[in-house]
Amino acid sequence: MSAQADTTSGKTLLARLQTWWSNPWGKPRFLVLFTWTYVLWSLVPVAIAVLFGFNAGRSRSTWQGFSLRWYYQDPDLSVLHDPSLRDALVQSLKLAGLTMLVATPLGVALAIGLARWSGWGSRPANFLMLFPLVTPEIVMGVALFLVFVYLFGFIQLGTQAQLLGHVTFTVSYVVIIVRGRLFAVGREYEEAAMDLGASQWQAMRMVLLPMLTPAIWASLMIAFAISIDDFVITAFLMGDQSSATIPVKLYSAARAAPSPALNALASILLFASMLAITVAILVMGRYRKKEGAQGSAVEDFARLDL
Amino acid sequence: MSKVDDERGVVGERRLLWPSFALPGVLWLLVLFVTPLYAVLAMAMGVMDPIFGDSLPVWNPLRWDPSTFQEVLGELFTGQLGVVFLRTLVYVAVATALSLLIGYPVAYYLARHAGRYRVLLLMLIIAPFWINYLMRMLAWVNLLTTDGYVNQILMFVGALDAPREWLVGKHETVILGLVYGYVPFLILPLFAALDRIDQRVIEAARDLGASPAQAFMRVTLPLSSQGVLAGCVIIMLPMFGDYYTATLLSGSPKTNMIAKLIEQNINASAGGSTGAALTIVLMVFVGLLMTYYLYSVARATREARS
Questions:
Q1: What is the dihedral of CA B106, B111, B114, B120, to 10 degrees?
Q2: Cα separation of A112 and A216, whole Å?
Q3: Predicted-complex ipTM score
Q4: CB contact at 8 A, B235 and B185
C-alpha cells in the first residue's frame, strides 16, 4: 500500500517536472537549470573547503566530525598557535587596515579634484588614474619591486613597501566609487549653498562631504577587501617570511604543506572580506532607502567597474 | 555687472582649488606608478655587473644596452620562450572561449528572466569576487587530490577505474582553474550590457515576425557585443599575468605560462634584466587590449556625464 503510494507520488513528481519543463509560457527552462548549476559549481567547492577547516581529523577529503581544532584548539597546528599562520593573519589585517586608512582620503580628494577640475592637465590626470585598473598585477608587482630595490633604497621591502604598493592599486577603485556618487549628486546643492552665502570651502565641508558619506564608507570597506585579497603585489614586495600575508601563505603551503589549518586560515580571510562587503552594501542600502532610490544596493555594486 | 565679477572670482578660486585636491593623488601615482614602470624599462635595457654577475638598471636612456632585450625577442619566436608564449596564448584563448560559453547564458538569464530571484542571484554571482582567488584554487586542490571528491565521484560513477593524478602537469586542470577563477569577472560586464538593452526593441522584432532565435541573433546578440568584448578583455588582462593558477594546480614546467618565467627571473639576481624584458613584452601585448578597454570606459563615462 505504502509502496504503491510512493510510486504514484514519484510519478506525479516526474509528471510535474515534465509539465514544468515543457510549459512554453514559463521562463526558459534551460537557462534556469544552467544558471543555478553554474551558481552551485562556483560556490560548492569553496563551501567544501570552508567545511574542511572544521574537520576533526587531518584529512581534507574525508569528513571526520566537527571541531574547532584547526582554529584554536590544537596547541601546535591551529591558526592561533602556529606562529607562521598567526603572523600571516596579523600581517593581512594590519596591511589592509593601513591601506584603507591611507587610500580612502587620497582617493576621495583625487575623485573630487578630477570631477570638478576641467582645465589643462585634467584629462591626462584622469587617464593616469584609470591606468592602474587595467595594468596586469604582475607588471605592477615587478615595477614596484624594481623601483624599491634599485631606486628608492630607503624603503625596505616588507610592510613599508607593501603598504605603498597596496595604496597605489587601491586608490583608483576609491576614485571610481566616489566619482559615481559625485556624478549622481551633481553640483546643484553646492551651488545652492554658495548662493545662500557659504564659501566654497564651507559648501564642500557642510554640503558635499555629508552627501559623499555612503561612498566614503563603501570606499573604506572595498579598499580593505581589495587589499586583504591581494596576492601578486604583496608577494613581490615581501621582504622575508615575516611579511607574508594569508594569500601568500595559501600559495606557498597549498601544495607543499596542506593541512585543514590552511583551510581554516583561508576561511578567516573569507569571513573578513565578506564582512567588509556586507557592511558596504548595508550602508549604501540604508542611504538609498533614506533618499527613496529604486532598486537595490546590490545592483549598484554589480555595476561598479571593478 | 557685479554678478559677472562674482562668477569670475569663483572661477579664479576654483582654478586653483580643484587641481590642488587632485594633486596628492596625482603625485602619488607619478612616483609609485609611472616611475616604477620606467624602472622596468631601465632594467630591461640594463647591464650585467662585471664582478658579481647581477643585472643592474641603467637610468640614462642614452646609455641603454638593448642586447638582453634583443635576446628575449629572438627567443620569443624561436626558442624555449616561444613554446611558453604560445602555450599562454592557447590557454587564454580556450579559457576565454569557455568562460564566454558559460557566462553568456548566466548573464542573459540574470538580466532578462531572473524575476524575483534577481537580487539573490546577483549576490551569489558577485560572491566569488570577494572570495580570495587562491582560496578558490585551494578549494580545487582539495577536490582534485588523489583521494579527493572528484576522483571518488568519477570512480563511483564508473568513469575512472583508478584515481587520476589531476594535479600534476595536466593542461585541462589548468584551464579548468582559469575558467573557474575568471568567469565571474566576465559575467558582470555582460550582465550590465544585457540589462541595458531596451526590452521593447526585442518585442518589436518579435512583433515584426522574428522567431525567438532570430530576435536573439539579430537584436540581442549585436546589442550585447560591446559587453562581450569588454568582458573578454577584462578577463584576458589578468589571465596573461597569471602564474599562480598553473603553479597551484599543476606545478610542472610543462604547464608554465609566460608570467611564471617573469616571476622566476625577477627573483633571481642575474635574471633581472631578462625578467624586465619579458615584462615589457607582456605589457606591449596587453597594451592593445588595455587601449581598447580604456577607450570603451572613456566612452561610457562620456555617456554617463551627458
A1: 80
A2: 12
A3: 0.85
A4: yes
Give the span between the Cα atoms of B128 and B111, in whole angstroms.
Answer: 19
As a whole number of angstroms, the distance between CA B245 and CA A19 comes to 43
Q: Under 8 Å CB-to-CB from A89, ≥6 apart: which residues? A: A79, A246, A265, A268
Whether B144 and B177 have beta carbons less than 8 Å apart is answered as no
Tell me, what's the pLDDT at A199?
85
A150: nearest Cα among B26, B278, B269: B269
φ/ψ (deg, to 5) at B47: -120, 165
Yes or no, beta carbons of B279 and A143 under 8 Å apart: yes
Residues 197-216 of A with CB under 8 A from B: 200
C-alpha cell recorded at residue A202: 564651507
pLDDT tens digits, one per residue of B68-91: 888 888 888 887 888 999 999 999
What is the nearest CA distance from A2 to chain B, expressed in angstroms?
30
Quick one: cell of A121? 592637465
**pLDDT of res. A304:** 53
d(CA A292, CA A56): 49
Q: For residue B64, which amino acid is it?
A: W
Indicate the pLDDT class of residue B32, thresholds 50, 70 and 90. very high
**Interface contact flag, A143 B39, Cβ < 8 Å:** yes
| A275 CB neighbour count, 10 Å cutoff | 14
Q: pLDDT of B188-233, one tens digit each?
A: 889 988 988 888 888 888 889 888 888 888 888 888 887 888 889 8
Residue B118, min C-alpha distance to chain A (Å) = 9
Radius of gyration of chain B from its Cα atoms, rounded to whole angstroms: 25
Q: Global pTM?
A: 0.85
Partner A, chain B 97-136, Cβ-Cβ below 8 Å: 102, 105-106, 108-110, 113-115, 119, 121-136
CB contacts < 8 A, A to B, total: 280
Q: In this predicted model, what pLDDT tens digit does every residue of A6-38 receive, in sequence order?
A: 455 556 778 877 776 666 566 677 888 899 999
